[in-house]
Each structure stands twice: as C-alpha cells, then as structure tokens.
C-alpha cells in the first residue's frame, strides 16, 4: 500500500509536487534493485525519480531540475531527449526495430560499420557489435585469446592490465579490472591478470612530470612483458584516463611506448575507449593523441549519444583472417548476443555520428574545456585539494585530508557522498568517485552551466571537509 499523505486545503502546490517524487520513490524501492548501490543507503539518501530530460538537464517528478554533470554515467553527449536522435529513432522504430544478426543484416548496421572504420585509427577494419561496454571487453578478450589459439599459440592465456584499471562488471571484464571496491568480493571467481603499474601521473614522485612517470612505467611494463609475453594474449588499457579508478590521467607518450612494446613482444593491444571515446579527451578518440592504432578498440557509452545500449569492437583484417576458414576447421568466433547489431541502437549511433559530422563539436568542446579549467584553477590552492587534473571534457579534483602528504580521507567517511547530496539540493548531479569530485558534462552545456556545476561543487567541498 502506498502511504497516504494528508492533504488539506492548506497544503501548498509544493507539497503535492513533493508527493509525486515520494510516491514514485516508494514504488521504486518496493521492487527495484539498483546498480552499484547499497540499497540500505536509501533510508537516508533520496531516490530521485526523473520524468523528463532536456539538454543537459534532468527534471524530477516534482519539477526540480538537475544539471547532469556526469552525463548520466558518461553516456550522454548531445543532451537528453536530443531531437535529432529522437526523430531518427522514431523513424527507425516504424521501419525495422530488430532482426537476427546471424545470416541477416540491415543497412543501418552496414553504414555504421563503414563509418566507424572511417573515423577510428587506421588499420581497424572489422566491426563486431555487442550490447554494452562489458560485453565489448569480453569480446575483445575472447577474440584475442582465440586469435592466438588459431595461430597455434594456445599457451597464450593471460592478460596484462594496469593497476587502477576498470573494464566492466561481467566476470571477464572484472577480471582485468583493478578497482578493489568492485573486484575484491568476486576475486575467487575471476581470471588472474598480470598487473602492470599504472602511468597515473598522480602517483608520480613530487615534482616528477607526467611524461617521466609514463617513461618509468613503460620500463616496468617492458620487464613484465620480457618475463610473460610468451603466455600473454594482450595488454588492455583505458587510453589517457582511468575513469572509474578515480579519473586518474596519464601522458600520451605511455600509449605510443606501449604500442611499440606490444609489437616488439608480440602481444595485442586492447584500447578500451568505452568512456574516453567520442570526443571526451579533446580528440575524437584518445588514442589519436599518441598516434597509435590498437589491435582491438572497444566502444560504447557515447556511441549512441547516450540513448541506447550498444557497443562495438573494432579489430584488424589479419585478426579476422585468423578465424576465416572452412567451417570444419572449427576456427569461427561463435560468440553472440540476441540483440547484436540492434537497428534502433545502430540508428541512434549513426545520428550521433551525423551530429559530429554537421557540427563543430570538438572545437566547441575545446572552448568549454578551457572555461572549465579556468573555473577550477582556484582549487589548486585549496587546503584539501591535492590535485586538479583535466583531459578535455573530463576534469577531476582530488580531495585529501592533508595536502602536504596527500593523505586521503578514510573511505568510510564518505566525503564524496556529502558532495553528491549537496549537489542534489542545489540542482546539480555530481557523483564523486570516493574522494574524487569530477566533471564530465554533456557537450551541450554552456559556460554559465559549467559555472553552476563548479560553484555547487566548491560549496559541496566546503561542506564535505568540515
Ligand atoms: C563503463 C565502462 C565499461 C563497462 O561498460 P558497461 O556498459 O557499463 O558495461 C568498460 N570500460 C570502461 C573504461 C568503462 O568506463
């Protein structure tokens, strides 16, 4: 039974609106189990029912607006309920909603594959579709292993990942992730990757340049490959920004050095651009900043502009050819998902690429990113901020208990949660990763809206550290 709230003639319109939120939240909590959530938190943390989106804004049942400072988990590029994408989807829904993708194909997937090959780094020629980021990572891991098996290198069974990495939540993707919060519990179920120390510039020695950290970490990777390349299928990395690991950033020279090492030691390079692809770091793909082409590139999140789940793994012609044989050779990649190549999702992706084609998105982002940097600059001197870092449209502020020693606030204190709650009260969706407050807004924000996000964050930080 829904709890009935007393409503008399004296009750304001505001109270009735608040009831709309409360009633949806109550119904939600009766049956829904939310992702990445200790549901018990909702005894004190409000569940926010969103009924409408409009550009960078989310609007709750009560009519309150929240600026989506994190692009709804890094997916949204061109605003909520984007009219171009919505119109394309409506047309597609009335034309072809779905068709089996084995033995059958459709024009939207064909055009999307052609265009992805065109815009991604040279050498990536084949596209395998899946439904979400984690599934794309599974595909890349399986394909890499299977490629070596088909090449009579069945002894290659391991993967190298970076410390602090995140590649998703399914067992394979979680296996190559190193965020303890998500991984630790399931460790007995997982593959054991070889971990190489991250080139994360925050972990550098005092005064050490990001480029120098990268060089030092490449040497550690070389040592690891020297010992383990014979049993290693691939190295998997998040190019330039380790997002879920706390928006940790590194110098592009690490990627070019890693590309050379992977060639030298004969292992694949998997670039997980699920979060950083589609303009986030200032270039269309982060790999471009190091002029490297990986052997596998995983794309999702922004691929559909944040409207529908879809992912793609791009790989090279010679990888494809290692699977291409007479059927009874048993070399085929028999992986599938029911909704592979879903026409609606592909259509949303195509319209997203059309927006990149028709509008000066990257130029506009450069201006927005420098505005964001200018607004965050004063935080460098904040007594509880150890680092302010940015790659294009991702900026992060590292809160610490002690600036000189960079001693972190204990995780149990949940300082970031206070910033989150402060944001909700002040019309901004900020969702810190532990003690890291970050900004990853949709590309349709304007400078005034960036100011709003930063102002709310600064006040929220003041509340969080007291
Ligand atoms: C989000 C993310 C994933 C997982 O994608 P899902 O669609 O959430 O499964 C994988 N890799 C990176 C780098 C991500 O940020």
Please name the defining characteristics of this protein.
Aspartate Aminotransferase, domain 2, 466 residues, globular, binds pyridoxal-5'-phosphate, four-stranded mixed sheet, seven-stranded mixed sheet, Aspartate Aminotransferase, domain 1, alpha/beta, 16 strands
How would you describe the overall organization of this protein?
The protein has 466 residues and is of the alpha/beta class. The protein folds into two domains: 11-81 and 361-465, Aspartate Aminotransferase, domain 1; 86-358, Aspartate Aminotransferase, domain 2 (3-Layer(aba) Sandwich), CATH 3.40.640.10. Helices cover 37% and strands 15% of the residues. The strands form four sheets. A seven-stranded mixed beta sheet has the order 4-12-11-10-7-5-6, sandwiched between helices. The chain has a four-stranded mixed beta sheet with strand order 1-2-3-15. A hairpin with a 2-residue loop joins β1 and β2 (57-60). α8 (210-228) runs parallel beside α9. It is globular, with a radius of gyration of 23 Å. Bound molecules: pyridoxal-5'-phosphate (PLP). Residues 132-134, 137, 166-168, 238, 243-244, 272, 274-275, 300 line the site of pyridoxal-5'-phosphate.
